[in-house]
Design brief:
Blueprint: E1 38-40, E2 46-48, E3 52-53, H1 64-76, E4 84-89, E5 97-101, E6 104-108, H2 116-148, H3 162-165, E7 175-183, H4 190-203, E8 233-242, H5 262-283, E9 289-293, H6 297-306, E10 313-317, H7 318-324, H8 337-347, E11 351-355, H9 359-362, H10 369-393, H11 411-421, E12 425-427, H12 436-439, H13 441-450, H14 453-466, E13 486-492, E14 498-506, E15 509-514, E16 522-523, E17 528-533, E18 538-543, E19 548-554, E20 562-567
Parallel strand pairs: 3-4, 4-7, 7-8, 8-9, 9-10, 10-11, 11-12, 13-20
Antiparallel strand pairs: 1-2, 5-6, 13-17, 14-15, 14-16, 14-18, 18-19
Helix pairs in contact: 1-2, 4-5, 7-8, 10-14, 11-13
Length: 569
């Protein structure tokens, strides 16, 4: 991408309140604690936009109980009755690989051929993690009961689902925990999936009803009729399926829709058997959601047509989220895989959750030092601006430091806030309990609510560079202090490279000044460029042959805002 920046004014004036848009929330969510950003799944259930991954191969299992207990304390700390909402990701995904295909990032749960025994090891480790999560939740529930008491609530309230009977969930006195679990290729098929889920239910003994013995829809009891120990904690299980490991002639793992063969057809059939098991459990409220985990966009398009119960969740990688969501940034003459996936998910009202959010971005920080440096600088600039904004406007919100005590926002928190602002759920890996202070819903949502469109554009430019093959120029000029300017994004669809000029007032007449080449003043076809400007600034655009194709492009957005110009003949 070309990144064009030209800044000539630094102003410490705070942006207008309108430039800080509200957090993504749904209608009538006042029953949820205010600091937890939530979204509505296609089935009407609420889901937090911020969760934590605890099943990473990098997470010490001894840390999981402490991590879960700390997370639930955060989730329930704002209500007098100890209620709230939380999300825990117990899906292992380290075996995933990212491939660059002509500049386009492809992603799936299994891109290359992997050994079956390695995947079985993943399954075993995930089961252990789920068991530890269950024990931690049970312990927390007991402690919660002793602290807050019964408060006269009926045991049957534990299983009441606000989406099924129209009644609101009691988020003041009950803690709703959404647990994401995954099924791998080795667990596909009716019998294997049933056995795997039965094992998982047994590990979550006191938190879920007994697993059904009969999957006949006419005979299987609804979970709401089954008794369970009530800890004022309600566990909502979401089961996610990976792609079946379909292969081409060279044994490369590919989308099942790209290569038809008897073996691949059998794999797809087993995949559908597993999905049917999940549908039966969903129908009777044993599980609260069904989703896809890293499924190829080609397979998503076909599989979703075969599902009686449409998936509500897609768990993917941050690469897909950055390509598909947020402000559109041109990346050449193509539609990116991430953008295509976004469209498919939107068509079927599927919510995107991004796993291992910071990890896959930060692994490139030494290869993209200028982009990473911009994020670090923005962390400091935004911390100071946010604190000043609250003081000036009488906002009581606390500007928390990071877990090391530094007065700046960390790069991971910037990444999380950026995605949450664009209504993308985030599932950062929680390696230690102290890291939760930095990634906690209150910390992330506070920053996300403050981010102006201008700052979103700057963060987006840096993040796109972090996952691309080209770093930002050293003299990019982004991330300056002051919130008065706006971001202007130029999208070149002219068919050839173009040159950008500022149109200045020169004693009553207009003067065009070319943006220096070293600042990225040439925008290639199919690419985008960002300039920091003031409202009212004007720009002109020329082709390489000297013909002016745009004149008097005026920035009309408010301070702290962002505006897009689509350049066409």
């Amino acid at each position: 991408e070309s990144h064009i920046v030209d800044i000539n004014i630094v102003d410490i004036k705070q942006p207008s309140k309108d430039s800080h848009s509200d957090l993504p929330r749904i209608d009538d969510t006042s029953e949820v604690t205010s600091f937890v950003p939530v979204t509505t799944l296609s089935n009407g259930r609420l889901l937090p936009l911020i969760g934590f991954g605890v099943a990473s191969l990098s997470v010490n299992h001894k840390e999981i109980p402490v991590i879960v207990n700390t997370l639930l304390q955060y989730a329930s700390s704002e209500s007098e009755g100890g209620g709230g909402i939380a999300m825990i990701d117990a899906v292992i995904d380290e075996k995933r690989e990212i491939e660059s295909n002509g500049g386009s990032f492809m992603f799936s749960g299994n891109i290359r051929k992997s050994e079956e025994n390695e995947e079985k090891l993943e399954v075993s480790m995930a089961k252990t993690a789920i068991s530890l999560v269950g024990r931690a939740i049970t312990f927390f529930g007991k402690e919660n009961m002793s602290l807050h008491g019964d408060k006269g609530l009926l045991r049957s309230a534990a299983n009441k689902d606000h989406s099924s009977d129209g009644r609101k969930y009691d988020y003041e006195n009950r803690l709703e925990i959404h647990l994401l679990i995954g099924l791998a290729d080795t667990e596909l098929g009716h019998e294997k999936t049933t056995a795997a889920l039965r094992d998982i239910f047994s590990e979550l003994d006191e938190l879920v009803p007994p697993f059904p013995d009969n999957f006949d829809a006419g005979n299987m009891m609804d979970r709401t009729t089954l008794s369970q120990i009530d800890r004022h904690v309600d566990l909502r299980i979401h089961v996610l399926l990976r792609s079946p490991r379909c292969q081409d002639k060279s044994e490369l793992i590919i989308p099942c829709t790209k290569y038809k063969s008897p073996v691949n057809d059998e794999k797809v059939e087993k995949w559908m058997e597993s999905y049917n098991v999940m549908e039966a459990l969903y129908d009777k409220n044993f599980i609260s959601g069904i989703g896809f985990d890293g499924v190829y966009v080609e397979d998503v398009r076909e599989f979703v047509q075969k599902c009686r119960v449409k998936p509500q969740i897609y768990r993917g990688d941050v690469y897909q989220a950055l390509e598909g969501y947020g402000r559109r940034m041109g990346v050449g003459n193509r539609i990116s895989d991430g953008k295509e996936l976004e469209q498919v998910l939107q068509d079927h009202n599927v919510t995107f959750l991004s796993s291992n959010v910071a990890g896959h971005v930060l692994e490139n920080k030494h290869l993209r030092p200028h982009a990473y440096g911009l994020l670090q600088n923005l962390g400091s600039v935004l911390y100071n601006a946010h604190r000043e904004y609250n003081e000036k406007n009488g906002v009581d919100g606390i500007i928390s430091t990071n877990f090391k005590g530094g007065e700046y926002y960390t790069v991971p928190r910037l990444i999380l806030a950026y995605l949450v602002k664009h209504k993308v759920g985030v599932l950062p890996h929680a390696f230690k309990a102290e890291h939760l202070a930095d990634d906690a819903p209150e910390s992330v949502s506070s920053l996300a609510s403050f981010l102006s469109k201008r700052r979103l554009a700057e963060i987006g430019v840096a993040l796109k560079a972090m996952i691309s093959e080209k770093d930002l120029p050293e003299d990019h000029g982004l991330g300056m202090e002051g919130e008065h300017e706006a971001a202007v994004v130029f999208h070149n669809e002219v068919g050839q490279e173009v040159y950008l000029f500022r149109v200045l007032d020169d004693m009553g007449s207009e003067k065009e000044v070319e943006i220096p080449t070293e600042r990225g003043g040439i925008v290639e076809h199919g690419h985008s460029a960002v300039i920091i400007a003031n409202p009212g600034d004007k720009f002109a655009v020329y082709r390489a042959d000297g013909k002016r194709i745009h004149h008097d492009l005026t920035v009309n957005t408010e301070p702290g805002g962002a505006e897009d110009f689509l350049l066409q003949l």
